[in-house]
Amino acid sequence: MTAAVDTRPSQKARTFRLYRTLPRLLKDPLKEIEQIGRLSSGELVRVDFGVFRAHVASHPDHVQHILRDDAANFLRDGTFWRPLHRLFGDSILGEGPDWDLSRRSLQPVLTTRHVNAVADRIAASINESIAALEPGASIDARAEIGGVVNRAVLKVFFGDKISDADNDRLAPAFDNIATAIAFRFLLPFLPESVPVPGDRAFKKGVEEMDSVLFSVIGDYRRRPDDGADFFSALCQARTAEGGEVTDRWVRDNLVAMFATATETTVGALTWLWPLLDSHPEVAARLYEEIDRVVGGEPVGPVHLPRLTYTKQVVQELLRLYPVGWLFPRRAVRPVELGGVSVKSGDTVLLSPFLTHRLGEYWPRPLEFDPDRFDTSRATPASGRRHRYSYFPFGGGPHQCIGMHIFNIEAELIIAGLLSRFRPVLLGQVPERPRIGATLRPRREVEISLQAV
Ligand code: HEM
Fold first, then answer.
1. With b meaning 16 or more CB within 10 Å and e meaning fewer, what string describes 156-172?
2. What are the backbone angles phi and psi of residue 287, rounded to the nearest 5°?
3. Position 152 pLDDT exceeds 70
4. In contact, 247 and 289? CB cutoff 8 Å
């Protein structure tokens, strides 16, 4: 046992004194977090970092209460959001009127009908990227798939309003930011005056990204159109008073959307290759389905309804590796949750990573088994599954608005790649992720692409 534990009957919340094991926490934070998940088995617990305390809620009833039933009482602000606020400002990732305006402005371009309409463009971009891959080549999966995702996402976001040159500057700048922010995300209570590794890279990445985004926004303001991409929807938004939104607001939302869309999608897909390598029976079923449905054609939305096993693989991938693994909330009013009193101002941490591994809801929780999501074989056990025992995309008013885009993109990329190549993993990848703002593998995932 690693974390220091004691029981406080007065408030019934078990406390994990993480400051006592700080060196171990810093070395392998996820190990400590998994330990807390195992020991708490769904109870609301408290983690104590010494200078900062929070509750951890993993039981699906508590998750549902916080994200959906009592969402107005659990806001996205407080210590843990501070480093992200530096990056996203007051945008779709905030709360209050700015969030409301952002969500309302983006909603029309994110409906199933609209996303289905852009699916052809996403497929065309993915096919073009895949056609450029050489059979026999060894690739760094994160970087290469990252390129495929970025190009597809930027098409959806900007239509044709961003040049290839700007695109090529944006993606690496953002990748640097995502890596550099990890320390701040893990130690959010450190004041900004205390320097941490990554600060300089973060600043440089933000400058580079801002110079591209403000220039594209300026171009749009000079030559506006009625395009139905995310970018145009944001630029055309009107404030409550009917005025034009500021360039800063558009920029903050673009950064927030870009972060949520690319880092998560790339992160999730990177985990696929080690999982297929260690589960050849899953890989064989996936190849069989893709060969049968896609064959030698370019992959397209027309194939998606028949890629049922591919869908299950993606769902199970996000159960084991829910890349948005931790999202905090701050209680406005005091409440009782599972017999534990949560005070006004307290932080509650939600983690799909912990909930998705609760044995009570997920038998053999550590096993990768896409058949859990086979709806044709619904067992009494899966019929009883709690809606909030699986929440890789959150829930309630802040539920991910990119879920449908992600599913289309992920299935098209997997089917497109595997219809042409059999990936062979080079080297071992540890099962346990490295954590930052998202879950990343501990080392690069290198694969060799063998022609089918
Ligand atoms: C594997 C892929 C993805 C995962 C795991 C994921 C996960 C999440 C989660 C957990 C939340 C809820 C955050 C909270 O409640 O505080 C969220 C919100 C959000 N996601 Fe995603 N996401 C993914 C892909 C995408 C994509 C592709 C887009 C954009 C096209 C996107 C855009 C957003 C936005 C804008 C929000 C904030 C919504 C709001 O607060 O109103 N996400 N996502």
1. bbbbebbeeebeeebbe
2. -60, -45
3. yes
4. no
Indicate if ligand 1 lies below 6 Å from the C-beta of 421: no
The percent of the chain in helix, strand and coil, each rounded to the nearest 5, is 55, 10, 30
Q: Are 171 and 185 in contact (CB under 8 A)?
A: no
How far apart, in whole angstroms, are the C-alpha atoms of residue 225 and residue 99? Answer: 24
Does ligand 1 have an atom closer than 6 angstroms to the CB of 393? Answer: yes
Residue type, 299: V
Count of domains observed in the chain: 1
Helices and strands of the chain, counted as H and E runs? 19, 14
**CA 281, 287, 293 angle in degrees (round to 5)?**
135
342-379: per-residue pLDDT in tens?
Answer: 999 999 999 999 999 999 899 999 999 999 999 887 65
Pair of tokens at residue 67: 């994200």
How far is the C-alpha of 45 from the C-alpha of 7, rounded, in Å?
Answer: 10
Q: What is the total residue count of the chain? A: 452
Identify whether 397 is part of a domain.
yes
Q: How confident is the model at residue 1 (pLDDT cuts 50, 70, 90)?
A: very low
Average pLDDT over residues 66-76: 96
Query: Residue 196 sits in a domain of what CATH number?
Result: 1.10.630.10
Ligand 1 binding pocket includes 396 (Cβ within 6 Å): no
Specify burial of residue 133 (Cβ count, 10 A radius: 0-12, 13-18, 19+). Answer: middle
- Using CA positions, which residue lies closest to atom 31 of ligand 1? 402
Q: Which domain holds residue 379?
A: 52-429
N- to C-terminal Cα separation, the chain: 47
- Best residue among 264, 266, 349, 399 to mutate for probing ligand 1's pocket (most ligand atoms within 8 Å of CB) is 264
Q: Give yes or no for residue 398 CB within 6 A of ligand 1.
A: yes
Does 269 contact ligand 1 (Cβ within 6 A)? no
**Predicted confidence band at 63 (pLDDT cuts at 50, 70, 90)?**
very high
Q: Is the dihedral of CA 274, 280, 285, 290 positive or negative?
A: positive
Question: Is 322 a domain residue?
Answer: yes
Report whether 112 contacts 404 (CB < 8 A): yes
Mean pLDDT of the chain: 87
**pLDDT, position 232:** 92
Q: What is the pLDDT of residue 275?
A: 95
Residue 303 lies in a domain: yes
Helix (H) or strand (E) holding 203: helix 199-222
Of 34 and 131, the one with more pLDDT: 131
Determine the Cα–Cα distance for residues 316 and 313; give it in Å rounded to an integer.
5
- Determine the atom of ligand 1 nearest the C-alpha atom of 67: 15
Domain contains 338: yes
Between 327 and 249, name the one with better pLDDT: 249
